Amino acid sequence: MSLDFDEFVLAAATADLSEEPDAREHADVIEFRMDLTDEPLAALESYEGELPILATNRAAWEGGEWDGSDEERLEVLAEATEFDAVKAIDVELEAILDGDAESVLGTARDRGVSVVASAHDFEGTPSRGEIASTLTEAAKHADVAKMAVTAESKKDALALLAATEQVTAHGDTVATMAMGDVGSHTRAVAPVYGSKIGYAPVDPAEATAPGQYDLETLSILVSELSS
Ligand SMILES: O=C1C[C@@](O)(C(=O)O)C[C@@H](O)[C@@H]1O
């Protein structure tokens, strides 16, 4: 399967690649959270799973747990693209705009690995217009523009969905979701408005963001609502 994100992609998030067989039934890719494990490159080296990998090495300043320098973090992410199973990487939009990610973006381009440029708001939900401009900016640098917000009201969820529809209608490929309980349903509904990636933990006890559904539930909801 090529990872062009033309169709919705269900990503099973995990820090443990040995869980891949549990994800196969419902997921299209494994989101490997490199920042949540000790030896991520060694884990990629011994990966024998069937699902392609979207590699994420999330910075602490963007809600992740990488505790080394940013330079090293992006270098390790670039090294991950050497593995055939790695078909996409996630790079923080802020690192891209700061100019820190030029090398990893170039490496990904040279190796034919797709790039997801992501932005997170853990405090709340910007206006529809602000979400749309962040997504539009991210889309200039990557194959998929991703934004995760924290919804505190139904109005927040609607702002996210409206921005998703707007930027998709403009022709960009986006992935959107609202974190938290109030926003949970957007994980199932945003794909109706164009969102091309959904995330769910392989192990429901190890959610990688607040408000995630388990893998089977998200898979069922998305296919029911989008068909
Ligand atoms: O950025 C994202 C989206 C996410 O935060 C979510 O809300 O599902 C889950 C993370 O694993 C992933 O890297």
TrEMBL record:
Keyword terms: Amino-acid biosynthesis, Aromatic amino acid biosynthesis, Lyase, Schiff base
Enzyme class: lyase
Lineage: Archaea, Methanobacteriati, Methanobacteriota, Stenosarchaea group, Halobacteria
Keyword field contains Protein biosynthesis: no
Matches recorded under InterPro entries: Aldolase_TIM, DHquinase_I, Type-I_3-dehydroquinase
Reactions mediated catalytically: 3-dehydroquinate = 3-dehydroshikimate + H2O
Name listed for the protein in its UniProt record: 3-dehydroquinate dehydratase
Organism this protein belongs to: Natronorubrum texcoconense
Binding site for 3-dehydroquinate: 31-33, 58, 187, 208, 212
UniProt subunit comment: Homodimer.
